């Protein structure tokens, strides 16, 4: 069996993550290494909506460093993509051009809808056809993705500006967050999610409800799910009741105290309350009493689509700059890049 070593460079709102895997079409991608850096790009957006010079500098330096790691790891291809923070920046095209010029990496921006589709692909491959109709929820730093379908391509895929980091900045500036602000955010989320949840459910009632992302994994761990050291195949579940109890507990804690909890990193501690509130509101809007936690998400979806694209000759991903809710299906762009200058 011929394996190819691939690198996936994920530029998110909070972190930049390089995942190196060995993979082949029809097989299970095997993780070989994982490297992360906390850049907090969403916090580097200025009042005009642009990524600051300092933020762009940090991004260029990190992409360059991680591209060299991918090259030294023997990656045949580096698939580099950015999500909400870069997608929303008004100077994203300028930043992307600079990244390419100074690092040789062709960093692509995923549209919100395509981010949701690729995550759904990973979930479908993990659970297989026997899972039936799947609804998937994914909470990032800047956005919430929802999808619903019975095939590998979901019938509904959407992205909403309801990420944990975004809502922390906009709604919960105090530490710990005040009880009144938590209640206000709860009510606001219910209103914001009503129409979108109805559209997701209109495609069909799910046989399986799934959640992906670090936020959901942390919430599940805090409510008693197995630790990451138990391996990816251990069943992990987050219940609505457990989530409600957790919120009443962590919303009274300071960021420093939350960072001491098992399963919560120092980088995630400031926004875990907002993340929990988004998770709770999403599950309530979709009438879900529990969700299974899937270990695969967007990065694995990118890898799987890359392997599929070699066989059928299609573009790896559709990209869109500055549009969180749709894809430029008339202008697909392969998200391939060089790993070195």
Automatic annotation (TrEMBL):
The keyword Plastid does not apply. It is an enzyme of class 3 (hydrolase). GO terms for molecular function: exopolyphosphatase activity. InterPro entries: ATPase_NBD, GppA/Ppx_hydrolase, Ppx_GppA_N. Residues 318-341 are annotated as: Disordered. Pfam families: Ppx-GppA. It catalyses: [phosphate](n) + H2O = [phosphate](n-1) + phosphate + H(+). Residues 20-309 form the Ppx/GppA phosphatase N-terminal domain. Keywords: Hydrolase. The keyword Plastid does not apply. Its EC number is 3.6.1.11. Belongs to the GppA/Ppx family. PANTHER family: EXOPOLYPHOSPHATASE, RETROGRADE REGULATION PROTEIN 2. This is Exopolyphosphatase 1. It comes from Mycolicibacterium anyangense. The lineage of its organism: Bacteria, Bacillati, Actinomycetota, Actinomycetes, Mycobacteriales.
């Amino acid at each position: 069996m011929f394996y190819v070593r691939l690198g996936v460079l994920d530029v998110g709102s909070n972190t930049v993550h390089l995942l190196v895997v060995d993979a082949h079409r029809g097989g299970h991608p095997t993780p070989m290494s994982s490297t992360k850096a906390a850049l907090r790009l969403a916090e580097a957006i200025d009042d005009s909506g642009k990524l600051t010079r300092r933020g762009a500098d940090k991004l260029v330096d990190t992409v360059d460093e991680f591209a060299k790691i991918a090259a030294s790891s023997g990656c045949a291809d580096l698939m580099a993509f950015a999500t909400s923070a870069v997608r929303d920046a008004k100077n994203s095209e300028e930043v992307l051009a600079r990244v390419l010029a100074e690092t040789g990496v062709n960093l692509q921006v995923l549209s919100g809808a395509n981010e949701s589709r690729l995550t759904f692909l990973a979930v479908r491959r993990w659970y297989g056809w026997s899972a039936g109709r799947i609804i998937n929820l994914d909470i990032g730093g800047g956005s919430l993705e929802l999808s619903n379908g019975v095939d590998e391509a979901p019938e509904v895929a959407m992205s909403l500006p309801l990420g944990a980091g975004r809502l922390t900045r906009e709604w919960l500036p105090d530490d710990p967050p005040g009880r009144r602000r938590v209640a206000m955010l709860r009510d606001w989320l219910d209103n914001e999610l009503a129409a979108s949840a109805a559209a997701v459910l209109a495609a069909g009632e799910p046989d399986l409800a799934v959640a992906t992302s670090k936020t959901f994994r942390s919430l599940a761990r805090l409510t008693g799910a197995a630790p990451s050291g138990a391996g990816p195949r251990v069943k992990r579940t987050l219940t609505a009741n457990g989530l409600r109890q957790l919120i009443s507990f962590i919303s009274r804690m300071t960021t420093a105290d939350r960072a001491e909890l098992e399963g919560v990193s120092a980088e995630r501690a400031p926004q875990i309350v907002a993340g929990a509130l988004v998770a709770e509101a999403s599950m309530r809007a979709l009438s879900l009493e529990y969700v299974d936690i899937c270990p695969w998400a967007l990065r694995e979806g990118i890898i799987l689509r890359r392997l599929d694209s070699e066989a059928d000759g299609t573009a790896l991903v559709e990209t869109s700059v500055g549009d969180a809710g749709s894809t430029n299906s008339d202008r697909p762009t392969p998200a391939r890049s060089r790993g070195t200058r």
